[in-house]
Amino acid sequence: MKKTILFIFLAMSLVACRQEVENARVVDKLPVLFPDYIGVTIPSTIAPMNFSVEGDVEIVDVVARGSKGGEMHVQGDYADFDIDDWHALVARNKGGKLTFTVCTKNDGVWTRYRDFDMYVSNYDMPDYGLTYRRIAPGYEVYSHMGLYERRLDNFEERALIENTQVTGMCVNCHTSNRTNPDNYVFHVRGDHGATLIHNKGKVELLKAKNDSIKGSFVYPYWHPSGKYCAFSTNQTKQGFHVVKDERVEVFDLSSDVLVYDVAKHEVILDTLLATKPYSENSPVFSADGKTLYYLTCLQQDYPENYKNEKYNICRVSFNPDNGTFGDRVDTIYNAVEKGKTATWPRPSYDGRYIMFTQMDYGYFSIWHKESDLWLLDLATMEAHPLTAANSNDADSFHNWSVGSHWFVFTSRRDDGLYTNLYLSCVDGNGNATKAFLLPQRNPKEYYTNTVYSFNTPDFTSHPVDIDSRTISVAIESDKRIDTKVR
Question: CA 34 → CA 60, 103, 363, 394, 445, distances in Å?
Answer without folding.
Answer: 13, 15, 31, 19, 10
